[in-house]
Design a protein that fits this description.
The complex is a heterodimer. Chain A is an all-alpha fold. Chain A has nine helices and no strands. By secondary structure, chain B is mostly helical. The radius of gyration of chain B is 46 Å and the shape is rod-shaped. The chains are: A mainly alpha, B mainly alpha.
Chain lengths: 201, 230
């Protein structure tokens, strides 16, 4: 029988440790993904995930259920990420590989219908997106992370970030617009480079 | 509409009602700027999907509940009091037995007789081990019977948890108070019994001691008569 988050929270609050373990199993991947995309480093993301669940466990009794458990957990994670960045006194660093090594790709499992060129292209795009996201202001980046990668509604994002609905939409729109310009510029540069390479050969 | 980015965003993410959706679609039919804007935003969203998160092992170490040691609070107070009293009485009885058996010089009957000629002091009364063992056994039997009786009383006094469901708070409080009173009465009764047992034990020991004294005096008299007849 699959219990809802609210049921598991109630049981965990009553002392059922296994219910809390189930909550962690359910939310560890999304929380890690959020922390990783915010901080840009795997080790930092792991530390934040550990701390986020510890704080959630300690704060369970104070969780009143006014918001969704996931929203509450996201908020804890984002606050930890913000504190982490401030403490480390650096902007989030994105792990962008210098170049794509074809030998390294040999170990990468491509999709069945994906060619090497497509795989290279996908990895380069992934790096480009990571870089572009890292350059966004924190509020816009957070809104896009929660919307695009965690599927929260506008209202859920507003509840998580404790800001008005219109503010969420404004941040989303501005962030997407900036990303659009940067990614289009990158694609234009790549297209120009390919053309130059083809012409020279 | 061209300036209403919020409506366009709601349409992009399908978070608008039917009326809003129809309004945006009507506008898009005639506005190339918004069509281009929408195309660009959709392409950007598609690009965002390429951003992968590396695979990772589980970070969290699941909680494992610690093994629970027996909680003393789960043992009824009357049982603890009875066990403590039993230990006290058995220990006291054992002490009395040991004291009675081994006090004094521990001399044999012959030595007692020869000493009796030189001294008027009677030998320390001794109680036969077999008789004291029988007394201990009787005490333990009586105490076990009393404990069994108290357990039955307690079992009758206990209210099954299911019966507590549906009771009003005051009724639950009254039940708890009644149960506690019964437990206190049981402990008080047990305590009185133990005092009575101790007094009874003391009386028996006194009676035995007097018998021993009488026997010793008789022995002394016989020995004196024998020595006087020589």
């Amino acid at each position: 029988m699959t219990r809802t988050d609210e049921e598991l929270v109630a049981r965990a609050t009553a002392g059922d440790l296994d219910s809390f373990n189930q909550l962690v199993s359910r939310w560890e991947r999304p929380i890690y993904a959020l922390a990783y995309r915010t901080l840009g480093r795997e080790e930092d993301a792991r530390d934040v995930v550990q701390e986020a669940f510890l704080r959630a466990f300690r704060g369970l009794k104070g969780f009143k259920g006014e918001a969704k458990f996931s929203s509450w957990l996201y908020r804890i994670t984002l606050n930890l990420c913000r504190d982490w960045i401030r403490r480390e006194r650096r902007a989030p660093i994105v792990q962008v590989p210098e170049g794509t090594d074809p030998i390294d790709l040999a170990d990468t499992q491509a999709a069945p219908t994906e060619s090497v060129e497509e795989l290279v292209s996908r990895r380069e795009l992934s790096s480009a997106v990571a870089k572009a996201m890292a350059e966004l202001p924190e509020e816009q980046r957070t809104a896009i992370l929660l919307k695009e990668y965690h599927g929260l509604t506008f209202q859920e994002i507003a509840d998580t970030l404790h800001c008005p609905l219109s503010t969420v939409k404004t941040r989303l729109y501005q962030g997407l617009s900036v990303l659009r310009r940067r990614l289009e510029r990158r694609q234009a540069e790549e297209a120009s480079l390919r053309r130059a390479t083809w012409e020279s050969s | 509409m061209c300036d209403d980015r919020e409506r366009l965003l709601g349409y992009l993410y399908n978070e608008c009602d039917d009326e809003e959706r129809r309004g945006v679609e009507r506008h898009l039919e005639t506005c190339e700027t918004c069509q281009e804007e929408l195309r660009g935003l959709r392409a950007t969203r598609q690009d965002l999907l390429a951003w992968d998160v590396p695979e990772h092992g589980s970070v969290w170490k699941p909680f494992v509940p610690a093994k629970m040691a027996p909680r003393w609070r789960d043992i009824p107070a009357w049982a603890m009091a009875a066990a403590a009293s039993l230990m006290f009485v058995v220990g006291a009885a054992g002490g009395v037995v040991t004291h009675a058996m081994f006090e004094g010089t521990g001399a044999s009957a012959g030595q007692v007789a020869s000493n009796a000629a030189s001294t008027a002091q009677p030998a320390t009364p001794r109680v036969a081990p077999a008789e004291l063992s029988a007394m201990e056994q009787r005490m333990l039997r009586d105490m076990r019977a009393e404990l069994a009786s108290l357990q039955q009383q307690s079992a009758r006094a206990t209210l099954p948890p299911t019966q507590l469901v549906g009771m009003r708070p005051q009724e639950v409080t009254d039940q708890i108070n009644t149960s506690e009173q019964r437990q206190f009465d049981s402990i008080f009764t047990m305590n009185n019994y133990l005092v009575k047992m101790k007094n009874s034990t003391d009386a028996r020991i006194d009676a035995l001691s007097q018998k021993v004294d009488a026997l010793n005096n008789l022995l002394n008299t016989l020995l004196t008569q024998q020595q006087g007849g020589r």
